[in-house]
Design brief:
This protein is an all-beta fold. The chain has a single domain, classed as Lipocalin. About 0% of the residues lie in helices and about 70% in strands. Strands 1, 2, 3, 4, 5, 6, 7, 8, 9, 10, 11 and 12 form a 12-stranded antiparallel sheet that branches.
C-alpha cells in the first residue's frame, strides 16, 4: 500500500481559504490498483496560534478507481462530498504533532462512505535531524473486492522515518496489517 495526498491553499482572508486536494492510493488489500481523487472546497482556520492550528475543509471531489481483475469491475468513477479537519500542535524546540482526517460520503453511490486519517509525531533529535512516527487509516464501507464484500474494512499502517535532515530521509520498513471490522 502507498498513498500520496498533496493539498494546496489560496487565502481569501486571514482565516478563509480555497483548498485543492489530490489523493492517490494503491492498496492490494482492496484489490485497488489506483484510486485518484481530485477536488477542493472551502477551508477555514478556527484556531491559529504559535503552538496550535485547527482547520477544516468542506467541498466535493471526483474519484476514479482502477481495480485488479476479479473485483467489481475494471474501473469505477464517483462524485463525493468532502469533509475534513487538520490539527497541528507545535513545540518547536522538541516536537510537532499533526493529525488530519477526511470523510468522503459518496454522492453517486448512496450509502458508501470512505474515510482517511493520518497522525504524525515528529521529535527533534540533534541539529537538523528528526524522527517521525506515523499512523494512518483508510476505511471503505463498501470495498470492491468480492472476498471482502460482506464486511467493511479498514487498513492501518505504522511507518517510521528514522532520521530526516533537510528533505533526505532514511526509512525503516513499515509494518502493516489488515483488520476486518464486524458490521
Amino acid at each position: 500500500m502507498w498513498e500520496l495526498t498533496p493539498i494546496g491553499e489560496y487565502f481569501l482572508s486571514r482565516n478563509s481559504t480555497l483548498a485543492g486536494l489530490a489523493d492517490f492510493l494503491h492498496s492490494s488489500q482492496q484489490d485497488l490498483d489506483l484510486r485518484s481523487t481530485v477536488g477542493g472546497g472551502y477551508g477555514h482556520y478556527w484556531k491559529r496560534t504559535k503552538q496550535n492550528v485547527f482547520t477544516s475543509i468542506f467541498g466535493a471531489v471526483f474519484t476514479h478507481e482502477t481495480f485488479r481483475s476479479g473485483a467489481t469491475g475494471p474501473t469505477q468513477q464517483n462524485v463525493e462530498a468532502l469533509v475534513g479537519a487538520k490539527y497541528q500542535l507545535f513545540r518547536f524546540t522538541r516536537y510537532i504533532l499533526q493529525s488530519q482526517g477526511f470523510v468522503y460520503p459518496v454522492l453517486s453511490d448512496a450509502g458508501r462512505i470512505r474515510a482517511t486519517t493520518q497522525t504524525t509525531f515528529t521529535v527533534k533529535l540533534v541539529n537538523n535531524f528528526h524522527s517521525d512516527f506515523s499512523f494512518w487509516d483508510n476505511y471503505d464501507s463498501r470495498p470492491p473486492s468480492e472476498r471482502q464484500k460482506e464486511r467493511p474494512w479498514h487498513k492501518q499502517q505504522f511507518g517510521v522515518v528514522v532520521l530526516r535532515m533537510r528533505g533526505h530521509s532514511a526509512h525503516c520498513a513499515a509494518s502493516d496489517f489488515l483488520e476486518e471490522c464486524e458490521a
